[in-house]
From TrEMBL:
Pfam families: Methyltransf_31 (PF13847), WHD_Rv2258c (PF21320). InterPro entries: Methyltranfer_dom, SAM-binding_MTase, SAM-dependent_MTases_sf, WH-like_DNA-bd_sf, WH_DNA-bd_sf, WHD_Rv2258c. The keyword Iron does not apply. This is Methyltransferase domain-containing protein. It comes from Gaopeijia maritima. Residues 32-106 form the S-adenosylmethionine-dependent methyltransferase Rv2258c-like winged HTH domain.
Length: 363
């Protein structure tokens, strides 16, 4: 009897499937490179410059954006071969089609996907430390993630603030009217305060408080509130797992932060206690389900699980936390809300939002 020593993966491999998978992997590598280019194009203002110009030379584009032409020309090469930017060889001119500009420029907010592309560079910055965690366990703390709050603020402006008044707050009937009349509101994990600042500006009769773990983010939020002349909003550095507020607020919000927490069960219990009787908890979180098999066809599945082990899960584990991860899912979220004491939990989606569930729960 002859026993093959070749790995099982190659002994039974179908050559046609290998070739097809190789093509798929080449697409993955190219798309990864394009994602980095989208981030660079956003941060440098190149997409905005291209959108404002007629078909132009690399020199004109660099001049408009205030950038070095040689770098701009090489970046344009990446964008042309990625079919993001069009190139006319006869004239040497580049153009960003209007259909592409609609998804890649600051003017296209909240549909600017170049904002989201910034995450790949942010997360790549901690790759060495994440690899170490695969070997020894533990996690990578928040402070290791450069530009996290800057990028998160831009992301929040698109996913939360842009939809806040027309779509998110109206999920709770009568809430807009109550905010206009004047209620007490707490936003936990407020980051740089984009959502809270927008509400404080829109509803001057209500009183707003933002809690955030990062001193840097709180300082930025306070500076923005001062610049806007807002006197009905206060920001403080508070760990939501240690907060002691009792029956102080009519509305508590948590936008995309509960699954990051070291002790999410304690945080949810604290938020329940902070509400006045009959008060409302509004939680935005990722639109996944707890079983993996229910997420296989999610349009953002690979992105969300990658975000999880390179940020959301690891920052929780860095604090010896639960490490729920980005994809903790609706089923576990509903269970934990009930265990924290919340009743009448409703779960909503928005037609334009493929990434989030919106939970409404009452004390």
């Amino acid at each position: 009897m002859t026993t093959s020593t070749a790995p099982a993966s190659t002994r039974s491999a179908d050559p046609e499937r290998v070739e097809a998978f190789a093509s798929h992997l080449l697409d993955v590598i190219n798309h990864g490179a394009v994602a980095l280019g989208l981030s660079v194009g956003h941060r440098t203002g190149l997409f905005d410059a291209l959108s404002a110009l007629p078909p132009s030379s690399s020199e004109a584009i660099a001049d408009t954006a205030g950038l070095d032409e040689r770098y701009v020309r090489e970046w344009l090469g990446a964008m042309v071969t990625a079919r993001i930017v069009e190139f006319e060889a006869a004239t040497g001119r580049y153009a960003l089609p209007a259909e592409h500009a609609a998804l890649l420029t600051r003017a296209s907010t909240p549909d600017n996907l170049a904002v989201t592309a910034q995450w790949f560079a942010v997360l790549a910055g901690v790759e060495d430390r994440i690899v170490e965690c695969f070997h020894r366990g533990g996690g990578v703390p928040y402070e290791a993630f450069g530009r996290f709050h800057e990028v998160m603020a831009e992301e929040s402006a698109q996913t939360v603030v842009a939809a806040l008044f027309d779509h998110i707050l109206p999920l709770a009937p009568g809430l807009n009217d109550r905010l206009r009349d004047g209620i007490d509101v707490l936003d936990v994990g407020c980051g740089r305060g984009r959502a809270l600042l927008a509400m404080a500006s829109e509803y001057p009769s209500s009183r707003f408080r933002g809690y955030e773990l990062s001193d840097e983010a709180v300082a930025a939020a306070r500076a923005e509130a001062m610049e806007m002349g807002l006197r009905n909003v206060v920001f403080a550095t508070v760990d939501a797992a240690l907060m002691t507020d009792e029956a102080r607020f009519d509305l508590v919000t948590a936008f995309d932060i509960v699954h990051d927490q070291a002790h999410p069960d304690t945080v949810l219990a604290n938020l329940h206690r902070a509400l006045r009787p009959g008060g409302l908890f509004l939680m935005q979180d990722i639109s996944t389900h707890t079983p993996l098999e229910s997420n296989i066809d999610h349009p953002l599945g690979p992105f969300l699980y990658t975000i999880s082990y390179t940020h959301c899960m690891t920052v929780s584990l860095a604090q010896d936390g639960a490490g729920l991860g980005t994809c903790w899912g609706r089923e576990l979220a509903e269970t934990m809300l009930a265990e924290a004491g919340f009743g009448g939990v409703e779960v909503h989606t928005l037609p334009h939002d493929i990434q989030n569930f919106f939970y409404l729960a009452r004390r």
